[in-house]
Amino acid sequence: MQNKTVLVTGEPIFLKRHEFLFRAMSQHFENINFLPRDKEWYEYTLPRILIKALYTIRTGSLSKANAYFQKNKIAFILKSQRTEQQIKQMQFRPDIVFHIFGTYSPFLHKSDIPYVIYLDYTVALAEKKWSGWAYFINAQQRENWVECERRTYTLAQHIFCMSSIVKKSLIQDYSIEPEKITVVGSSGDFQLPYVGEKQFGSQQILFNGSDFKRKGGDLVIAAFKKVKQAIPSAKLIIIGKKLPLNENEDGIENPGHVSSRADIHNLFLNTDLVIAPAYCDPFPTFLMEAMNYGIPCIVSANDGMPEIVTDKETGIVISEPTADVLANHIIDLLNNPLLLTSMSHAARDKIKNKLNWNKIAEQIAKQIAEILSEKVPATLSKGN
Q1: Is pTM, for the whole model, over 0.90?
Q2: pLDDT at 381 over 50
Q3: Domain 2-187+357-373 has what CATH class?
Q4: How big is the CA angle at 210 (ends 321 and 196), to the nearest 5 degrees?
Q5: Which of 105, 134, 202, 233 has a 20 to 30 Å separation from 12 between CA atoms?
Q6: Would the pLDDT of 212 be above 90?
Q7: How many Cα atoms within 13 Å fall on the side-chain side of residue 190?
């Protein structure tokens, strides 16, 4: 174990989502401390409502207003400045800062405290894959944000990426040196892989529809109608949120958000197949949770999903998903229990040997040890 102090920074929701990573990292570092970001003045209820109302009038869209509210240079600077001040005022000096995602930087200026970033996506990728995540009022506002990102990535000692597509974006879109980027993947909400049995034959299909449109919900509904014709006993469960579905949709259940881990456990144990034909999904945790239970997955070839699901081994990767193509693959797998079982074993092996937090923490700890073993430069002046 390294006798080093790691300070974790990031949005509170991101720190909560990665609690199992930090548990795994605690096996490698003597001290891990947390500094979740505090709200800025404009994020409290009244100013937030007023500012978003003005943005909505200007953009003509609430979704665009929400996107710009989150991604603008002023917000980036305020968040980074506050975090930098809080780090300087701490009663201890961290050896390194571990920052989650690129919504702001742990330091607005150069610092003698090194920091690394764990990254799932970039704005440059969002512009190409799902523009709703990357709306800017004009070209200058966009460039201002990208420059904030670029500076943050440039000043970082190292960047840990969930997927190879993010590494490629960092190199091509932000001019980051390849040698300071490591692809480590991600995992699900579990510390140890599931070791119980997995049975097939329920013909139950599971879909996470928390962001229905982006995750390919239209394809799922259309495909299931064809599946139902071929396999009358098939059932589709859509979780994530309640949807305005036709109550008479045969074979479809929509329980909405499922918060109980026991209910999630039962859902996975009773599911034969998970489908995720998303148009954009950086590195979906849901797939790894399914694979942990030995459930084969059918996914689109977008973003990091082909790095999670190995085509024809742990599931199926569809290069250009359509309702017909998705339906045909679902029907083929549900009618082939031997193939499902084979994919199930392969899925669990991939989680056990690669996509788990202990393996990821090992890679991160090794790289951080190398960073801290190097000579730390003297404190640099502000603005340099």
Answers
A1: yes
A2: no
A3: alpha beta
A4: 85
A5: 134
A6: yes
A7: 22
